[in-house]
Amino acid sequence: MRIAIAGGTGTVGRLVTDLVRRHGHEPVVISRSTGIDLLSGDGLDAVLAGVDAVIDVTSTASMSAAASIRFFETATRNLLAAEQRAGVRHHVVLSIIGIDSVEKGYGYYQGKRAQEHMVQTGPIPSSLLRATQFHEFARQMFERMKVGPFVLVPTMRSQPIEAAEVAARLVELAEGVPAGRVTDIAGPRVERMADLARRYGRAAGLPGRVVELSLPGGSGRQMRDGSLLAGTSAQLRGQDFTTWLRQQTGSDGEAKAQRPMGVAGIPLVRAPLPQPPEPSLTNARELIAGLQTAGMPITLTIDGDERRLPVNIDEAAFRALQEGVGLVLTRTRGVDAAATVRYLAQAVEIEVSHGPGRVTPHAQLSATLSRSRTEIRRLGGAVASGPTADGGFRVSATIPTPG
């Protein structure tokens, strides 16, 4: 096949170009650096001659709504018209998860919506893939958002994916038949963008202090509230940010904590407990691992078909786990505790317990999931607590999930 890549010199475009070549196809790079201008259309007819499919990963640095819409509409119009003249049979375009949710005000996403509309209503049979932000976005913060000694990063919950995974899916689509809007793809874990930027900066040795800013208006709120996370039907692919960062830099970028000490089996933590991860069950393992590193005697078991939950249920379940773990660990000293996440057919269940042992004087103040209870009940769920058969104690929460 002869496959053209519009935007073939960008972050994803370079990966797509290399992968097309490794799959035995002929890549054709469309960019201004190769003498082709999508905004004027110059050079498109010649370069698209004999092309079977086009993969469009074009982008613009502008955040202005007017400029973004103008760029994507002009570039897409010229590209589709040239494809039609050349007899191209398949147009594959990359877009972004959550752009339907973001209100008017975030200009780049308005441009992407305009691009999607033109492709879906255009003359060339198409496939449209939406993905979350890339792991590489953390590096771009240092390149694009550095102001003096500061790196300005919006307060944003994200579920980043490795750009190489996105490239692989785009090439896979181009090799097949036009499929319209295909299943979204995302990374395996929910993260906080400012945390990723800080870790990347530490791992890569980049200067600059990351400052997290909450953007105003509806678009800023939706960045914070999970509107840009993958839906329940999205396919989770690739490695998490930590694994990717180690491969890129040799470091995970985590701030090094002092080692915990213990006396008579009771852990004493020199440093503060680790900052909890973003509220998502995709981060349950990290939550417990951080506590274990700090010397807390707790284990985690995940039962059932682990799956992506709706954002509000996912967050409520994680907060129940987080509260339950804190509650159980403060009731005792040096007694083993266990946390369990059960994925049932139509519910998710959280249970945290500790075995028999001496309890603290404040144990009666920590007897139920008081902070999580209201939201869990609003979602149709229930909480419970009480002694176990062996003389220990347990708290639990059950939240119904869509069937």
UniProtKB/TrEMBL annotation:
Domain NAD(P)-binding residues, every copy: 7-174
InterPro entries associated with the record: ComplexI_NDUFA9_subunit (IPR051207), HATPase_C_sf (IPR036890), NAD(P)-bd_dom (IPR016040), NAD(P)-bd_dom_sf (IPR036291)
One Pfam family, short name: NAD_binding_10
UniProt GO MF annotations: protein-containing complex binding
Protein name: SDR family oxidoreductase
Organism: Microbacterium protaetiae
